Every structure is written in structure tokens, then in C-alpha cells.
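Researcher: I'd like a structural prediction for the single chain below. Treat it as a standalone chain; there are no partners to consider.
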Amino acid sequence: MQETSSAQYILQQYIAASGGARYQSSIRNAYAMGKVKMLASEYETATKVTKNRNSSRAAETGGFVLWQMMPDMWYVELAVGGSKVHAGSNGKLVWRHTPWLGAHAAKGPVRPLRRALQVADRAMVYG
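Model: Treating it as a single chain, here is the predicted structure.
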């Protein structure tokens, strides 16, 4: 945990010293894609929860695509192990589509993308 805090501090100092904060705050749209490797998973259906834990050799692989338009619109697709999950927000409504639950609106208030992805720090989303 200390290394993560130190790395985050160094990045924040670099951004401040180079004037990058002004540039970073001017970003209105973002796009990212990448690969994922899932060692553990939990699938929920209407009747049960199935938990899987794989060795690193048997890990399921896949990819993701992410679009964001500031301030509150975003869309993400995640395809892993033969399943595809979609989620998005138009700034007023957050929705999801999963193979096991279908399409549905999320309960509660609109959440920002980093909250939907359970990412603690915005810089982690933008790299």
C-alpha cells in the first residue's frame, strides 16, 4: 500500500510541476480499450450465486472498451469467458445489460464512471 501511495504522490507532483493539471482538466472525452485476465469470478442469476477461482494458467481472458464524455456520460463493454456485459449512463440514468439478468436500470442516483467500475482514483481510469 505504501508503494501505491508513493507512486500516486510522485505522479501528482509531476502533473503539478509540468502544468498537466490544466491540460488534464480540459479533457472532455476519453476512449480506452484493453485486455483483461480474470482469476476469480462470481456470477449471479435469479436463483443462485456461482463463484469460480482459477489458477493463473486457467484464467479467463477477454477485453474491454470504454468511452466517456464529461461530465456524466459513459459506456463500457466487457467481454470475458464467453460473456459480454454492457453498462452506461446518459447523465440521468445508469443501466446495465448482463447475460444472466438482462437489461435493467441501476437503482439509486447516477454514479460516475469510476464508481461504476469501483476505481478509487480517477487517474487510474485515464492512465
